[in-house]
Amino acid sequence: MNDSAAAKAKAFEEEALPHLDAVYRFALRLTGSPADAEDLVQETFLRAFRSWHHYTPGTRAKSWLFTICRNAFLRQRQQETRRGQVTQQASTPEAPLFLPAYQDDPEGSFFAGLVDQTVLDHIDKIPPEFREVVLLSDLEGLSYAEIAELLAVPLGTVKSRLFRGRKLLQKVLYEYARETGVIHPATGPVS
Amino acid sequence: MSKESCRAALERVYEYLDNELSAQDAAEIKGHFEKCRSCYPVLKFCQSFQEAMQRAAECQCCAPSDLKAKIAELLKE
After folding, report:
1. ipTM greater than 0.90, yes or no?
2. Which of A91, A133, A141, A170 could cross-link to A161 by cystine, CB 3.0-4.6 Å?
3. Distance separating alpha carbons of residues A134 and A128, to the nearest angstrom
4. pLDDT at residue A136 greater than cutoff 70
5. Does B69 touch chain A (CB under 8 A)?
């Protein structure tokens, strides 16, 4: 390995590899399968390494890797199936929460009664375009501006998808809470 | 409270909780939630949801231990 290749490998190891866990989690949420996530992560890091010269050292490596990961995922999905319909972009609804849940439990106490893994599992139940903004914001802590850049969409789209995505997530969590007795419709959360 | 100020506060409740507002806008919305009896519970509900998400974020899994080794091998090729 010559000096420049060694420097590249070292820089990549120091800046990109520390985000392996985050990229794996992102890939797992996108694909829904540990095996597919591993393949996607390997492809992501291979592509990132090959295009390392496009990366500006010291900038947001995590967002950059997420972008590569997402693009690779979309390419794979396009190859597997021709994308049918794109879910229509919803306009921002007025209520920021899922109303039936709010009416049953105005303080949202039932959220505290849910196991963390249950919350994570239910993120997979909302449509992909909403799921990705929720996980990038709520699980990975990216700012709206970082998410907009990563997804190549306007800031307003990030806001409206987050708004809608969180409501959808509240809906599926509420339905789960009712099914499992964490919350009773008439009496609210079980203490 | 005017319907317009309630609508503005509810539309931006997540931006407020996500610290995405300017200091001035955040102070304005905070003031509204503190005074408005119909909007305040909505803020509390959204905060409960946000707290559940934060707890879930902390318990996320890590990449399998052998994946890093696989990637290291891949990069050598």
Report:
1. no
2. A133
3. 10
4. yes
5. no
